[in-house]
Amino acid sequence: MRVLRSALAMMLVAGSPAIFGALSCAPRSGEESAQPASPARSMTPVERGEYLVVITGCDDCHTPGALYGAPDFERRLSGSDLGWQGPWGVSYPRNLTPDVETGIGAWTDAEIERALRSGVKKDGTPILPPMPWPSLARLTPEDMAAVIAYLRSLPAVSHKVPAIVPPGQKASGGVLAFPPPPAWDAPRKP
């Protein structure tokens, strides 16, 4: 989440009008005001999972249009074609719907949990930044099960996001580029 906040702060400094709209707390036309969550003990696992997905900001990257101030909730969590560029190359928010071909429909609950707790995908490759899996790793077992139940409850959306672009190669679509880190923030050498 720190990476996402930093990226959004950089875009605000650059004066991106789309981001100002995305960060507005006011409902947009045709949108209802957010309702406070009911106590966790009165929620079903799917309701608790939806609540956790919302407060952890999953929609921000994984729902089309969210970073432009117009999230398309009919395609909720179906991934984005807006890439995140940094020293890791360019990564794209994956499709988290239960679509078997392009989403997580062929993943087991254990594979989803492993990805969220350890940053390792089903195929054994690492989940790249800016995905905040270290924060999600701290979910309780009950909350992790609720998030998984919620993801499984979504309508399957067929959407294959672009492939990861290795470092030094150019992405064909839009990207949010992280500048090289200043000395204070640079990763330490082992």
TL;DR of this structure?
This protein is mainly alpha-helical and 190 residues long.
Description:
This protein is mostly helical. It has one domain. It contains 7 helices and 3 strands; from the N terminus they run ααααββαααβ. It has a 3-stranded mixed sheet with strand order 2-1-3, with no helix packed on it. A hairpin with a 2-residue loop joins strand 1 and strand 2.
Fraction of residues in β-strands: 5-15%
Helix count, DSSP H or I runs of 4 or more residues: 7
Structural class: mainly alpha
Number of domain modules: 1
| Average pLDDT over all residues | 85
**Elements, N to C (H/E):** HHHHEEHHHE
Per DSSP E runs of 2 or more residues, the count of β-strands stands at 3
Q: Describe the largest sheet.
A: 3 strands, mixed
Instruction: Report the C-alpha radius of gyration, rounded.
Output: 17 Å
Shape: globular
User: What is the CA-CA span between the terminal residues?
Assistant: 24 Å
Provide tags for this entry.
190 residues; mainly alpha; 3-stranded mixed sheet; globular; disordered N terminus
Give the arrangement of secondary structure elements:
Blueprint: H1 2-13, H2 17-23, H3 45-55, H4 58-62, E1 83-86, E2 89-91, H5 109-118, H6 133-136, H7 141-153, E3 175-177
Parallel strand pairs: 1-3
Antiparallel strand pairs: 1-2
